Amino acid sequence: MQKLAVLLSGSGRTLDNFHERIQAGELQAEIQVVISNVAGVLGLEKAGRYGYPAFHAGDNKAINTILADYEIDLVVLAGYLQLYAPPKGLERAVLNIHPSLIPSFCGKGYYGHHVHEAVRAKGCTVSGCTVHFANEEYDQGPIVLQRCVELDFDDGPDEIAAKVFAKECEVYPAAINLVDAKGVNFFWNRVEKS
Question: Cβ distance 86 to 63 under 8 Å?
Answer without folding.
Answer: no
